[in-house]
Write a structure and sequence with these properties.
It is a single chain. This protein is of the alpha/beta class and about 150 residues long. It has a single domain, classed as Glutaredoxin, CATH 3.40.30. Helix content is about 30%, strand content about 30%. It is built from 5 helices and 9 strands. It has a 5-stranded mixed sheet with strand order 5-4-3-8-9. Strands 1-2 form a two-stranded antiparallel ribbon. A hairpin with a 5-residue loop joins strand 1 and strand 2. The two termini are about 25 Å apart. The relative contact order is 0.24.
């Protein structure tokens, strides 16, 4: 998906088994981010950065939603272990990841694989994508600061 596209209505099921819909967030903006795997160093750094700056993002009108292909129990353990207070969608079918365009070929340690492409979408109050942070732009340890710096422009 690209700037100007509307995110899907049904986003998926979170770590608690709740169905997450974009209409649940009407009137709010969303930081919708995809990450490859819970409990890995980069994904943990990114999630913790977002959690650490959650209040600032909320003050700017944003809710945070994460999505990976991890199972619901893995998402729940990840959220509990790191005190993540936002939904983590368990997209085991990769349907949402594929729809968003953040599932595809990537190179890791010199090997080509297919998987989640770390991507962040800033979505407006009507569910329209306004900004896309592509994998090469994202610095996991300071990703929330990257978003907040962008919002200041």
């Amino acid at each position: 998906m690209k700037i100007g596209d509307r995110i899907p209505e049904v986003l998926g099921t979170d770590q608690f088994g709740n169905e997450i819909k974009s209409s649940d967030y009407r009137g709010k903006k969303i930081v919708l981010y995809s990450y490859p795997k819970a409990n890995t160093s980069g994904c943990t750094a990114e999630a913790c950065s977002l959690q650490m700056h959650k209040a600032e993002l909320e003050a700017a009108g944003y809710a945070i939603i994460g999505v990976s292909k991890d199972k619901q129990d893995a998402q729940a353990k990840f959220a509990e272990k790191f005190g993540l207070e936002f939904p983590l969608i368990a997209d085991t079918s990769t349907e949402l990841l594929q729809t968003l365009g953040c599932w595809g070929e990537k190179v890791a340690c010199g090997h080509r694989t297919v998987g989640t492409l770390r991507t962040t979408y800033l979505v407006n109050e009507e569910g329209i994508i306004e900004k896309v942070f592509v994998p090469k732009e994202i610095k996991t340890k300071i990703h929330a600061e990257q978003i907040l710096d962008y919002l200041k422009k």
